[in-house]
Design goal:
This protein is α+β, with helices and mostly antiparallel strands. About 40% of the residues lie in helices and about 20% in strands.
Length: about 120
């Protein structure tokens, strides 16, 4: 299914754990080159985030791990939603990733997927 829909995608968020399961024989250079229309956002378990397009790494950011993770079930959704909002409102890639990380860090600090957020100084 993924190989049928990925050629149509403009944005794909994938974790390193998902990559290992879904595409164990490919790295991001190969995968983003095979589906060149999409911007690929790769989140890594050690706090690194990479943005790829058409086989090229456009940005890499390293973040400190969140100290008090309570529930990570909505973290990816919060991250990518914030990233989209930030890029659509003109943020460059490093700023968009920073904003996305800041929101996701708040989300994982609560139980459940509907949480109170403090967006002051995050979405600029």
């Amino acid at each position: 299914f993924a190989d049928q829909i990925l050629p149509l995608m403009g944005l794909v968020k994938i974790s390193d754990e998902e990559m290992a399961i879904l595409y164990p024989q490919e790295d991001m250079t190969e995968l983003s080159g095979r589906f060149p229309l999409a911007n690929w956002v790769l989140t890594c378990s050690e706090g690194r985030v990479e943005v790829w397009k058409n086989g090229l790494q456009l940005c890499v950011q390293q973040f400190e791990p969140v100290a008090n993770v309570i529930d990570s079930s909505a973290a990816g959704d919060a991250f990518i939603a914030t990233y989209i909002a930030a890029t659509l409102t003109g943020s460059d890639l490093p700023s968009a990733l920073q904003q996305a990380h800041a929101v996701a860090a708040q989300v994982v600090s609560y139980k459940g997927s509907i949480v109170p957020l403090n967006l002051e100084n995050i979405l600029v």
